[in-house]
Write a structure and sequence with these properties.
The protein is of the alpha/beta class. 24% of the residues lie in helices and 16% in strands. The protein is built from twelve helices and 20 strands. The longest helix is centred in the middle third of the chain and has 20 residues. The radius of gyration is 23 Å and the shape is globular.
């Protein structure tokens, strides 16, 4: 296990929207390097960088044309290498986004695989044995290659699926995941990882980590592939880390060997019930809504079994948001977000903050750009100050990757840094407390103290700290056989004489 993860707090950066250092309207690597001190000032000592590889950008860079080359619009490989080095000088780490399941249809591997004549890459992608054989249950393309066959897709038509094989064979054109062609795909991805690790990268967030092997109902074959990758890391790069987009820590961490796994905004899951659950009439049913109609047990019933199964092997990662999820400003005011983020940042495991969430950037309903569709509204440029383009870029408005927030009340870093009670400074205070106290870091020391169905507050213990959360507008007053002095508060709470009193919309950390 990489030793630095226990005190890690990540900041997710969408590179095209973070900071434009050369005035072309698109964020870039040098812009990220310029802003490393800001990221660290939040309390984030690690970065997850969304894809920055060469790409035709049909899916915002998740359609990779060359895994070993930085996209020209972001800079050069040397720029990224310098970014790694500058981060390391500051005691920070950077994970790149690994996209192992598919490439762009413009990737050199795929261009070779399309050829009728058999070659080294013929088996690098999944092809049927005839252009007329269009398999049920799989997205596919045909009629655009000289090769006689349909090729399977992941997501968009421009993303052919790499061939990691099948666990359950149902057709003669399918190869078992132990086939040499499938093993070659795995080894090629390990080669990509080594390339960037040798450049100074500290590991990878793995896109759709559970989707490699097809007809793999229990994901056992996919897990076997990742265990093989983990073995390579342990032997060659023991301080390199991997976090999976799997949202099933019992499999991702305990069976597949990932160091961390995200809990994501999947309908009906525990994380979803915390922040984004709605009733049939569209009303808020999330636990962190001030309306107070949520049920913390929906989260705990999902989280606790995952936590217990994985806590000795790795870390669960909770997120404020990500590039695929509507920002929490959609439906939540600033006080609600202060309480929600304070909770996320004091839970065990390794937390992730999405760029701009720390200042309360808005979600906008925008026309799709680069395959973003409804996700586009969470990808708008970072808001630094009230200068031109909110400090993101010196380019003219029409050249910007996406429009900036043009409201007079658009939050900015400059504005929030001047206000001690701002969302940004609230997060800084919580993270300072986390970094200063080992009991509040990733260590698995989580104990539920008080949690009742359809009731508030929620109280849990982490070592010498008791943390109490009352997102609802209603005052709560419960018997609680705990003692401690408040070391951080939002709103007003007291813990004395065997009772916990919390005003509406409050959060408190008590230290014994």
């Amino acid at each position: 296990m990489p030793s630095w993860l226990n005190d890690a707090v990540f900041y997710e950066i969408y590179p095209q929207s973070f900071y434009d250092s050369n005035g072309d309207g698109i964020g870039d690597i040098n812009g990220i390097t310029e802003k490393l001190d800001y990221v660290k000032s939040i309390g984030c000592n690690a970065i997850w960088l969304n894809p920055c590889y060469d790409s035709p950008f049909m899916d915002a860079g998740y359609d990779v044309r060359d895994y070993k080359k930085v996209a020209a619009r972001y800079g050069t490989n040397e720029d990224l290498k310098r970014c790694f080095a500058e981060a390391h000088k500051r005691g920070m780490h950077i994970l790149l986004d690994l996209v192992p399941g598919h490439t762009s249809d413009q990737h050199a591997w795929f261009r070779e695989s399309q050829k009728a004549q058999k070659n080294e890459y013929s088996g690098r992608y999944i092809w049927t044995d005839s252009v007329w054989n269009r398999p049920d249950g799989f997205g596919c393309m045909c009629g655009v290659s000289e090769r006689d066959g349909c090729y399977l897709l992941n997501f968009f038509s421009s993303q052919p699926a790499l061939n990691y094989g099948f666990n359950r064979i149902t057709a003669p054109w399918q190869k078992h995941y132990t086939d040499l062609d499938c093993v070659a795909t795995r080894e090629a991805m390990k080669d990509v990882m080594r390339f960037w690790l040798d450049m100074g990268c500290d590991g990878f967030r793995v896109d759709m980590a559970d989707s490699l092997v097809k007809n793999d109902d229990d994901r056992s074959a996919t897990a076997e592939i990742w265990r093989n990758v983990r073995k390579m890391l342990d032997q060659e790069y023991p301080e390199a880390a991997m976090v999976s987009e799997w949202s099933d820590p019992r499999r991702a961490i305990t069976k597949a060997g990932f160091h961390m796994d995200f809990l994501l905004n999947h309908l009906g899951k525990g994380y979803y019930s915390l922040f984004r659950e709605t009733g049939p009439d569209g009303s808020q049913r999330s636990f962190f809504s001030k309306q107070g109609r949520g049920n913390i047990m929906k989260f705990l019933d999902d989280y606790l079994p995952q936590y217990e199964a994985s806590k000795d092997y790795g870390y669960i990662s909770l997120i404020t948001c990500n590039h695929d999820t509507p920002r929490m400003t959609l439906g939540y005011d600033e006080l609600e977000r202060k309480i929600a983020y304070s909770f996320l940042l004091t839970m065990p495991g390794v937390p992730f903050i999405y760029y701009g969430d720390e200042i309360g950037m808005q979600y906008f309903n925008l026309t799709s750009v680069e395959g973003g569709y409804n996700r586009t509204g969470s990808r708008t440029p970072m808001q630094w100050n009230h200068g031109k383009n909110l400090g993101f870029s010196t380019a003219e408005k029409e050249k910007l990757y996406l429009p900036v927030d043009e409201r007079d009340v658009a939050p900015t870093v400059e504005q929030q840094e001047k206000d001690d009670s701002s969302l940004l400074n609230t997060i800084r205070k919580v993270l300072a407390l986390r970094h200063a106290n080992s009991d509040l870091q990733a260590v698995p020391n989580f104990e539920v103290v008080y949690a009742e169905k359809d009731q508030y507050p929620f109280v849990f213990r982490r070592g010498s700290f008791v943390i109490a959360v009352n997102p609802s507008c209603r005052e709560t007053n419960i018997p609680l056989d705990e003692t401690g002095e408040p070391v951080f508060q939002i709103g007003k709470s007291s813990l004395e004489n065997g009772r916990l009193l919390m005003r509406g919309q409050s959060f408190a950390i008590f230290k014994k």
